[in-house]
Write a structure and sequence with these properties.
Layout (H helix, E strand, L loop, with lengths): L7 H37 L8 E3 L2 E2 L5 H13 L2 E5 L5 E5 L6 E3 L3 H8 L5 H4 L4 E3 L4 E3 L2 H9 L2 H4 L9 E4 L4 E4 L9 H13 L4 E3 L16 H13 L3 E5 L3 E4 L1 H4 L3 E3 L5 E3 L1 H15 L6 E4 L5 E4 L10 H14 L2 E3 L22 E5 L4 E6 L2 E7 L14 E4 L2 E9 L2 E2 L4 E2 L2 E9 L6 E4 L22 E3 L1 H10 L5 E5 L1
Parallel strand pairs: 1-6, 3-10, 11-17, 18-28, 26-27
Antiparallel strand pairs: 1-2, 3-4, 5-7, 8-9, 11-12, 13-14, 15-16, 18-19, 19-20, 21-28, 22-25, 23-24, 25-26
Length: 484
């Protein structure tokens, strides 16, 4: 045998080597194919979105930027903004109503640029969710017109009410604010424009502050400060001891206090004056009609005259203002005009010491502490306008002994109409009416006053002895009641 012959072992070795090479070539081929497929897919995702990519709720896997943006255009075309009002009602603004259009933006492109195309195998196993801002344009005039038609704008609107000081019967407390349905147009316009620009689907008008808000709430210090000041004023207390106590306290003062829309507290001085007028109307008695029973037991009325209570309202006004502003507590008689006081606050206000002249009966009584100490028939003025004795309630103004009563000047003679000497003169009015002795009268009482020449010029004529007795007992300031 020569060298060309191979051993069985050599043949077997040669066969194994060939198989290895084939396997290596096959593996290399498969690897190359996989590599090409991987790189090709990576190249594809260089311009397309990775698998399981979601943009604004749309699955854009494998799409191009242009395809993704077409979805956004469709969103704009179908856009509606839902508005929810304070009472829960809803209404919509459609994009088509305001000519809304899609404006090309960079969001879709940025998503593509941010992804790593070479990691596309990993994308198969995870979701990638992206939200981009959709840029839009719209017709501002159409939007304005659409807002004008919203029920939130055209419907009945209840304005908001600020918190404010409320008197609860004892003190001022903070009454909470009330939220209304009145729209704040500036805020509404702004929030709708923002919602459209941001491509928002809903807008809660209350949450977004589209309603007019109260200027002050329960938490506003201005309201509490106003309450505190008003309560400070209400600490004042003034007691007027009339026929029954008249009390100026919080229940009255609270009605004089006001607070403006800036929570500035004011004491309404005109209201104080009005209260004083009503106070005076009730307790002033000068000139009022009084009902009473005469010493003879006759039911009578009297009106007019100068006697009675007359409150000096202007002086008392200053007292009240000072007391309220400084929280003072007082008990006081009201200040009265000079001569504007009476014996008692009840009716009749002349009390139980007075002179009663009954013009119908031509009789008079002097009552002291409720007891008649003198009574007599009299002659009063002749019942003609220039001589009639005036009805009313008066007081004794002066007392004179041995004086001359002088009548008004007679134009024809230039002299007094009469000059009559009397021993006892007790003046009732400054116009010349009073009590005096009349020794020229032969009788008193009855209806003598109706007879010309017997009826007086208006005075109350008395017998000399009765005039003397009255003069000795009567004090200046004693009430005189002249009535029918």
């Amino acid at each position: 045998m020569g060298n060309e012959e191979k051993t069985e072992v050599e043949v077997k070795e040669t066969g194994k080597t060939g198989k290895r090479k084939k396997l290596l070539y096959a593996a290399a081929g498969i690897t190359g194919i996989v590599a090409l497929a991987y790189l090709g897919t990576a190249a594809f995702f260089g311009s397309h979105y990775l698998p399981r990519t979601v943009m604004n709720g749309h699955d854009i896997s494998g799409m191009t930027v242009e395809q993704a943006e077409s979805l956004l255009r469709e969103d704009v075309g179908a856009y509606e903004l839902s508005l929810t009002g304070i009472t829960g009602e809803t209404e919509n603004i459609k994009g088509t109503e305001v000519s809304m259009e899609y404006e090309k933006g960079s969001g879709a492109q940025e998503i593509l640029e941010e992804q790593n195309a070479f990691l596309w195998p990993a994308a198969l196993f995870r979701d990638e969710r992206k939200d981009v801002r959709i840029q839009v344009s719209y017709d501002a005039e159409k939007l304005k017109a659409r807002i004008e038609k919203l029920k939130a704008v055209t419907g009945e609107q209840t304005p908001a009410t600020s918190a404010y000081p409320r008197f609860d019967g004892g003190q001022f407390i903070v009454e909470p604010e009330q939220y209304g349905t009145a729209i704040d147009r500036d805020a509404l316009d702004q929030k709708i424009e923002e919602a459209l620009t941001e491509f928002e689907a809903t807008l809660d008008l209350e949450t977004e502050g589209c309603y007019a808000l109260p200027a002050y709430t329960s938490e506003s210090p201005e309201v509490q400060n106003a309450c505190d000041l008003m309560n400070q004023y209400c600490k004042a207390r003034i007691v007027y001891p009339m026929d029954e106590d008249v009390i100026v306290d919080a229940s009255v003062i609270s009605g004089w206090l006001t607070v403006d829309d800036k929570m500035q507290v004011s004491l309404d001085k005109e209201a104080v004056r009005l209260w004083l007028e009503e106070f005076g109307d009730k307790y002033d008695t000068v000139g009022t009609t009084r009902s009473f029973t005469t010493p003879a037991g006759k039911a009578a009325t009297v009106k007019g005259g100068t006697y009675g209570w007359s409150i000096n309202e202007e002086a008392e006004f200053e007292v009240i203002i000072d007391a309220v502003e400084n929280g003072k507590t007082l008990e006081r008689e009201p200040e009265y005009y000079i001569g504007g006081t009476a014996a008692v606050h009840g009716m009749p206000d002349w009390g139980d010491t007075y002179v009663d002249v009954d013009l119908s009966e031509q009789h008079m009584w002097y009552v002291v502490d409720g007891e008649v100490v003198l009574e007599t028939d009299v002659v009063t003025g002749q019942p003609i306008p220039e001589r009639i004795t005036p009805e009313g309630t008066y007081t004794v103004l002066e007392k004179l002994r041995n004086t001359v009563l002088v009548g008004s000047t007679n134009p024809a003679t230039g002299r007094p109409s009469y000059e009559t000497p009397v021993s006892y003169w007790m003046r009732v009015t400054w116009s010349g009416i009073g009590f005096h002795d009349a020794t020229w009268q032969s009788a008193f009482g009855g209806n003598l006053n109706e007879t010309p020449g017997i009826g007086s010029h208006g005075c109350i004529n008395m017998p000399l002895d009765q005039a003397s007795a009255l003069y000795e007992m009567l004090e200046i300031g004693t009430p005189v009641v002249i009535h029918y």
